Structures are given as C-alpha cells and as structure tokens.
Amino acid sequence: MIPEEFPVILTVFLSMGAWRLAKKNSLVRKLPSVETLGAVSVLCVDKTGTITVNKMTVCETWAIDNDVNTLSEVMGLGCEIDAYDPMEKAMLDYCETIGISKKHLFAGELLSEYAFTNEQKMMGHVWNHDGEILIAAKGSSEKILSICKISDEDLKKTEYKIEEMAKKGLRVIGVGKMELKNKDEIPATITDCTLKFCGLIGLTDPPRESIKDDIKRCTKAGVRVVMITGDNGITASSIAKQIGMPNCDHIITGDELSSMSDAVLRERVRDVSIFSRVVPEHKMRI
C-alpha cells in the first residue's frame, strides 16, 4: 500500500459505517463522528425527556393542613400564565380538573415575580389576588422548606412524606405562600421571603417504552450509562431501578459534588451511576 491511499481507505471505511448507521435512521454529518461514537465507553444522559417521556401528570398532592384546594391554588398562582414547561402545564391541568380555572387564577394583577435559577431551584409570583397581596412560590422541596417557617414536628413529617413520594419515582415539588399587607412589603428576592409551607406536589413522568432494552444493549456493548439530573436523588434512583440501570444505589448530589476536589471526584465517578440536583457547571466537571 502506498501512503497516498490511506486517506482514501479511511474515507471508504468511515462512509460504510455512516451508511450502516443511516439504515438505522442515524444521520451522520461528519464522518469522524462514526469513529468517535464507536469509542464511547460511558454515556451520560439526562433523565427528563431522555430516559422519561417528558409528559408530566400530577398524581399525588399532600397538604400539611389537609387543605388541598389552597395548596392547588397557590401551586397554580406560582405557574407562568402562558406555561410552556411540561411540569407547569400538568399543574394547571390538575387545577382545572378540581375546579380551579385559569380565569380565576390569573384574574388578579401580577405585581412582581422571582425567576427560577439553577442555583435557587425555586420561583415565585407576587399577585394581587382576591383582594389580598400574596406570594406564591414553588420549587425543589428542600429549597422551599429552607425559606419556610415550620415547626420541627411538621418538618419531620414533611421530610418523611418527601422520601415516601420520591421512592415511588415521583418528582416532588414544594409549595409555599406569604401574605402581605401592602406592596411596600414585597421582598427584593425570593430568599428574603418567609413562607408558610402549604404542601407537596408529586408528578409522574414515566420511562420511555424502549429505554429498558436500550440500557441492556448499552451494558452488553460495554457502555456504562450514567444519569445526570436536576431531580431528587431518591426519585432518580427509583426510575433507574425501573429501567434496570446498574449501580442505581450509587448517588452523588450537587452539594456533595461542590465540596469535592477534582481528585476525589475522579475516583468517585468510576462507579457512580446517578448524579442528582446538579447544575450545568456540575455537568462540565463530571
């Protein structure tokens, strides 16, 4: 073989690989990516919309004072008026099913809002609703509880319920409210609020039908699948068990990851299959 033939031979073999992938409905723009794909040994995937179908449904509600109507109304007020997020759409659909219409929810005046951020993992709206000024907040149950005034007994009861719901594979959202006397009392940030805890919302997002077989095929091919999600670790572990992911009890949270040095993380990633409550910066580190 003469040196000039190497590029030709390489192109032919990569083209054959691309052609075989095309027969399986995989479109390849850059031929070297076929070689890269063949060398994959660890596959990091998101949970929502990749492992699951991203079609959320509210399947369980738990109000700390047994007032599910108030919990649901505050949850609805915490959603965007023109909701595009599947989770918020599911919440508003649930409100409709129990007789709380969008017209009633959004009839008042939206005075201010606290946008969702990856760091805070919660959001809120300030409404002039039914003649009162109300802050409606929702988000990660841990974060919402951190800005709520709640007794030790109620906190213990709530934490038990969070774990119970998460073990069922539900995404658990905390809901809280704060009543104000006038507009001047509106806090500058959501973390300045002192909320009254309303309860928990459990949403189901079932795994894709084919995902169990996909995980098996990856494992058989020597590819380790790792789930990286912003969701609760117990919820992620429950979904991982349903789809047959190996090492689904090995979990690292975003807070743990932030406190780890690169050397420690380099060792831990060898056998961890689930990273929970992560933000985009964590994904880059992993």
The stretches of 5 or more residues where confidence is low (pLDDT under 50) are none
Principal-axes shape call? elongated
According to DSSP, the number of beta strands is 10
Nearest-angstrom radius of gyration?
Answer: 23 Å
Strand order of the largest sheet: 2-7-6-5-4-3
Strand percentage lies at 15-25%
Proportion of residues in helical segments: 25-40%
Attribute tags:
six-stranded antiparallel sheet; 286 residues
Structural write-up:
This protein is of the alpha/beta class. Helices cover 40% and strands 22% of the residues. The protein has twelve helices and ten strands. The strands form two sheets. The protein has a six-stranded antiparallel beta sheet. β3 and β4 form a beta hairpin. α3 packs across α4 and α7 runs parallel beside α9. It is elongated and about 85 Å long. The two termini are 43 Å apart. The model has no long low-confidence stretch (mean pLDDT 91).
Question: Quick gist of this model?
Answer:
By secondary structure, the protein is an alpha/beta fold. 40% of the residues lie in helices and 22% in strands.
Q: How do the strands and helices of this protein lay out in sequence?
A:
Layout: H1 6-23, H2 32-38, E1 42-45, E2 57-63, H3 68-77, H4 86-97, H5 102-105, E3 109-114, E4 122-129, E5 132-140, H6 141-146, H7 152-167, E6 171-180, E7 196-204, H8 211-220, E8 224-228, H9 233-243, E9 251-253, H10 254-259, H11 262-268, E10 274-276, H12 280-285
Parallel strand pairs: 1-8, 8-10, 9-10
Antiparallel strand pairs: 2-7, 3-4, 4-5, 5-6, 6-7
Helix pairs in contact: 3-4, 7-9
